[in-house]
Design brief:
heterodimer; A: 409 residues; alpha+beta; Phosphorylase Kinase, domain 1; Transferase(Phosphotransferase), domain 1; five-stranded antiparallel beta sheet; three-stranded antiparallel beta sheet; 13 strands; B: alpha+beta; Rossmann fold; 2 domains; 30% helix; globular; kinase (chain A)
């Protein structure tokens, strides 16, 4: 047998002891962990834990495994939202298929869960918008998915919004850029698959009343089209409008979840022509900033939220001290005095239901809500206590991320 | 259903490389056309241009008499069949086939009619009310085909559909696809790199090399009357043997002794210093096992056998030979292009399974000189190709096809909506049948 894995190699090495020579279906259940709320898969997929981390193992032909391994590796380097690949095992005995190993996307949810929640109706819109963002981002990067579906996408909460990740790259083709035909075809496939998946939920009585599978599926192409247009269209305007029009456009793209790589402005007597080149990677400005100040690794919207709280805290420190406080000092202090105490209020049995940064975001929301009711600021500590007592317990237990369950036992 | 005509199709990428170079090809209504060739030959690019995934640099793509160069994939009403597919666990087999129609809001009775007809053709009728969980591998693939059928597309397109299946399912699916195509009589374009798949499935096979068509013909014509060295070497397994030869009188002088040519072939090859003679493995035999009556139709020679390979029903002997550099260089290029292992200068000859010829010994062989072809080693052209004989073979294949389609239709095995060319088809578009 042959193993190929990407650094850090310690994770790969820790998995070497598993019975790779056996078909996945025959692995001892003791070695596996159960992950609830999965989508539909054509292949045998199993989950294992090692050193507190969870990995997904998928049995597929060697050719596909190598293809997917290379693609997912490239996606990660480019910052495209996809699951992270660890490695592959090939040349297994008796001509068995290869196994592709990916890192489990912690705190992720499948569409099956999202649609079976009580608040599903509100999230349908959000979900389709998120899927459109993912597809536009991939298409900008020259990625023809060939199998865009809800089953092949995972969702994570990001400060109340959803972020979508590509999970399955078996059918992906990489091109320098996509033709219009390729984009439309990919979108047609996505529309059809989303429709079929929702119809399936409806047949299984898992779709809330009032959600029409066909209507939802049909809403994907227009969402995609308007987003694609927003992101790629060329604008022409009068020279005197230049300054605010450029700023407006960049702001609009940021709001849609895209970073701008390069702006090209060509002026002539008729006016100015603006072309923006959108970065394909997920935006990361706030994420990097927060990481620099606190060492916390969170998603972009969460980072924006946390940074706002950190800045407010710094202003408070400065006011109290009557002197400037450095960013670094404020960051360190905020982490130990504000952030960590909130996370520490989560009782052990509720840990893992939401990502810690998402809990912090929800506590801030909850604080706003309580403060409005009380007519005064109730403070973060009181809000956190109330939140873990009254709100967090209603999050379903099956949402608990597998690595937390693993580390518990 | 529709014919597909390609007129001087060119696909040039940004770097100027022509992936498809001036391809003209007519695919008849109801025909099963295979596009085959080694990787990089342009077969997939051509298929993508039919579907609408690749822009066409120049030339005309005409489907059902209509130029579609500028149409979006879904407006071409073609069906890419099961490159990957998903079965939805809560839906019955019926709904798993019907959902593309549900999504296009087709009325219930029309859905019922089409699904029933498709399930008859696919022999899935017994399973319609079941959940898909317990279907066999082959039945699952048929559900995916059912989705393609109910759309009533103008044509079915397959892009290496079997490359990820295991050998057993691959064989099974090859049969299914071929049977289904006959029953439906639907125009089908099928891309593969596997010459065995090409030979067993197609009415006609289009062999491509570096973006250019080499030959379009029935499998038998390709096999018996190849147009050049490339086609001759690509089609057939084990491959055709190529030996160096020079013309002396009315015979070719070869490492396996003189091979007599008839007048037509002598005239065709005269005037060249060095030639290459192509002999298929089965044109050889252990001389001791050849009928008296057959003997004079060929020549005999003695050679030392390097290796024999006994397969129960057949046997192969490997005979090394000497060749000048001009020939070995040409053969090296050919094998590189065909992604084959380095061709050693040895012939693979088929001998009867009962033959006692053994490795390391010298033995007498017979070769059927009637069927050898002679190639120009410089250009690769087949100098002795009999175009008329080839055309007759392809004509025969066409007659067989018409007869088979008629038979399938008379025995009531077809789907009625398919025959009328877009009637009620609507804008179902070019979809792959299924999801993952």
């Amino acid at each position: 047998m042959r193993y190929l894995f990407r650094p850090p190699g310690t994770e790969g090495a820790s998995l070497l002891g598993l019975p790779w020579h056996q078909p996945l279906e025959e692995w001892d259940p003791e070695l596996l962990i159960t992950v609830p709320q999965r989508g539909i898969s054509r292949h045998v997929v199993r989950f294992v834990a090692s050193q507190g981390r969870v990995f997904a193992l998928k049995e597929i032909s060697e050719h596909l495994a190598r293809h997917e391994y290379a693609l997912l590796g490239a996606f990660e380097e480019e910052g495209l939202p996809s699951v992270s690949v660890l490695g592959i095992c090939v040349d297994r005995p008796q001509g068995q298929d290869a196994i592709l190993v990916t890192r489990y996307l912690e705190y992720s949810m499948s569409y099956r869960y999202l649609f079976s929640r009580p608040s599903a109706r509100q999230s349908v819109d959000q979900l389709m918008d998120t899927l459109a963002v993912l597809l536009v981002r991939l298409h900008l990067a020259g990625v023809f998915w060939g199998d865009c579906s809800l089953s092949n996408t995972l969702f994570r909460l990001d400060a109340g919004a959803l972020a979508a990740y590509l999970v399955d790259a078996e059918t992906v083709e990489r091109h320098p850029s996509l033709s219009r035909g390729q984009r439309h075809y990919d979108l047609d496939l996505a529309r059809e698959r989303v429709g079929a998946e929702l119809l399936d939920l409806q047949f299984g009585e898992l779709l809330p009343h009032g959600v029409d599978p066909i209507e939802v599926a049909d809403s994907l192409p227009p969402r995609y089209a308007s987003l694609w247009d927003e992101v790629t269209h060329e604008e022409v305007f009068q020279a005197d409008e230049q300054r605010y029009r450029v700023a407006e456009r960049l702001q609009r793209l940021n709001d849609l979840g895209f970073d701008v790589g390069e702006v090209e402005l060509v002026t002539s007597d008729e006016g100015a022509r603006l072309r923006v080149q959108t970065r394909v990677s997920s935006p990361g400005q706030h994420r990097r900033e927060l990481f620099r100040l606190t060492g916390l690794e969170v998603q972009e919207n969460q980072a924006r939220r946390l940074l706002n709280d950190l800045r407010a805290y710094r202003a408070y420190l400065e006011q109290k001290a009557g002197a400037p406080v450095s960013e670094a000092a404020a960051g360190a202090s905020w982490l130990t005095e504000v952030y960590q105490p909130v996370i520490d209020t989560i009782p052990p049995d509720l840990v893992g239901r939401l990502e810690p940064a998402e809990v912090f975001h929800e506590v801030l929301e909850h604080r706003w809500f309580l403060s409005e009711q009380a007519g005064r600021d109730v403070g973060t500590t009181a809000a956190a206590r109330s939140y873990v007592r009254n709100v967090l317990p209603s999050t379903p237990a099956e949402l608990t991320t597998p690595s937390v369950i693993v580390n518990r036992s | 259903m529709a014919s597909i005509e390609m007129k001087n199709i060119v696909k040039q990428y940004g770097d100027g490389y022509p992936a498809v170079n001036d391809v003209s090809l007519d695919i008849a209504d109801g025909e099963f056309m295979i596009l085959v060739g080694p990787s990089g030959c342009g077969k997939s690019t051509l298929l993508r241009m039919i579907v609408g995934l690749e822009d066409i640099t120049s030339g005309d793509m005409i489907i059902g008499g209509k130029r579609v160069n500028d149409l979006a994939p879904r407006d071409r009403n073609l069906s890419m069949v099961f490159q990957n597919y998903a079965l939805y666990p809560h839906m019955t087999v019926y709904e798993n086939i019907a959902f593309p129609l549900r999504l296009s809001k087709t009325p219930d009775d029309e859905v019922r009619r089409r699904v029933t007809e498709a399930s008859d053709v696919l022999e899935l009728k017994e399973h319609l009310e079941r959940k898909p969980a317990n279907l066999s591998g082959g039945q699952r693939q048929r559900v995916a085909m059912g989705r393609a059928i109910v759309r009533q597309a103008e044509a079915f397109l397959f892009d290496e559909p079997l490359s990820n299946l295991d050998a057993k399912l691959r064989g099974q699916m090859r049969t299914e696809i071929s049977r289904l195509q006959r029953r439906l009589g639907i125009t089908t374009v099928y891309v593969t790199h596997d010459q065995t798949e090409a030979m067993t499935l197609g009415d006609r096979v289009c062999v491509l090399r570096k973006g250019k068509i080499q030959q379009v013909a029935s499998p038998r014509e390709l096999y018996e009357q190849p147009v050049n060295l490339f086609v001759a070497g690509f089609i057939g397994s084990p491959p055709m043997n190529f030996l160096p030869a020079t013309l002396e009188g009315d015979s070719l002088s070869t490492p396996f002794g003189p091979i007599r040519l008839d007048e037509r072939r002598v005239a065709a090859v005269r005037g060249r210093d060095l030639l290459m003679v192509g002999i298929r493995p089965e044109y050889f035999e252990d001389a001791s096992l050849v009928d008296e009556a057959k003997m004079p139709l060929g020549s005999t020679f003695r050679a030392r056998v390097d290796v024999t390979e006994w397969l129960g029903d057949s046997q192969y002997a490997y005979i090394p030979y000497e060749a000048p550099e001009a020939i070995t260089a040409q053969l090296r290029d050919l094998s590189r292009e065909l992604d084959a292992e380095e061709i050693r200068t040895q012939a693979i000859v088929s001998i009867d399974a009962t033959s006692r010829i053994r490795e390391g010994r010298e033995a007498e062989f017979w070769l059927d000189s009637r069927k050898v072809h002679v190639f120009d080693p410089q250009t690769g052209d087949n100098l002795t190709r009999d175009a008329e004989a080839g055309a007759r073979l392809t004509q025969m294949a066409e007659e067989d096809r018409v007869e088979q389609v008629e038979h399938a239709q008379n025995s009531g095995q077809t789907v009625s909506g398919q025959g009328t060319g877009g009637g009620g088809g609507g804008a179902h578009g070019a979809h792959r049948a299924g999801a993952a």
